[in-house]
Design goal:
This protein is of the alpha/beta class and 409 residues long. The chain is built from 13 helices and 14 strands. It is 34% helix and 18% strand. α1 packs across α12, α10 runs parallel beside α12 and α11 packs antiparallel against α12. The chain is globular.
Length: 409
Amino acid sequence: MARAFLLVLDSVGIGGAPDAASYGDAGADTIGHIAEACARGLANRAGLRAGPLTLPNLVRLGLGDACRLATGRVPPGLARPDGDASAAVYGCAAEISRGKDTPSGHWEIAGCPVRFDWGYFPRTTPCFPPDLVAALCREADIPGILGDCHASGTEIVTALGAEHIRTGKPICYTSADSVFQIAAHEEHFGLDRLYAVCRVARRLIDPLRIGRVIARPFDGTAESGFVRTAHRKDFAVPPPDATILDAATAAGRDVITIGKIGDIFAHRGTGREWPASGNDALFDRTREGIGALADNGLLFANFIDFDQLHGHRRDVAGYAAALEAFDRRLPELTALLRPDDLLVVTADHGCDPTWPGTDHTREQVPVLIRGGGMAAPLGRLPSFAAMAALVARHLAFTGMPAATPTAAA
């Protein structure tokens, strides 16, 4: 009657991966630097939060201990209280996939590391191949594009939103990730039309090995300000090999995926897809999923706000507040778990809000376990795929590696 719940806190990294220097991220530490900023009073915001980072429930699961494994130190405020003898089951994991993007991280968590190099667009302006732009304009019936560069999504919409409305040209941009992003106004351009343009773009860029085309709808006016809406949609390539979702589906198990998991896996093996916008809504859907998941089933959820609203915007106070809000609600989930359920709380990469730029950071991730009959720390896991092995073993189905070796804690 065992069930498994895999929760990804998007971008909640815990210190540079062994190969972080090759990505320009040596020294990045999402949780560590947020905790340090909070301890120094640099993440206070009136009406939002103040003081040291306070995450008692994640600390009880072993978050501070996982940070120690990754970096050799426990961040300020994340040490377990003196006398706490609870047997936390924790570890840290390093990614072996190439890249530091969302699909690579999630696919590896699901047992499918990325062994190939993604395609990327150069840091030039324009950055997209002229023949790609010409084909997109022709086949999607648009009068041209704006942007054609590397950019922050919020900043480029603010800068070009009015021109987009006036000309009807969608705003196209990229980042350090393997992405082609298309922003358009929901009312003036139309949401369905934006999705249609993205589908054309997805087909055209397949030969370039670009991981995702992302629809970025927004609303508002130049006077009131442009705001991205909740109708983002990712058009991803499917994983190259079987994942834990495929294995669960092939075994006839109940599968529920929460948030953007369906998009990340190109809707393959993703079972009942329950979308939601924002961490609170995603948390509510996850609570519903715990009640609805059948025996021997798998629930896979992504909590996006850490990355999308705070990491990329380098908002330390907002990131800290989001972590604390999640932590406050965590007991709502753990109270619903059965004795034979397995809960895994992890992340897919880092997005250190104190780091230069606005891109992801190549970091290790926490692996925090509750249930599943496990009692000893996991140590350092050499691949995110170890989590897929744990889930497969717990749910007793084949199609995934039986186990992944671990190092001593």
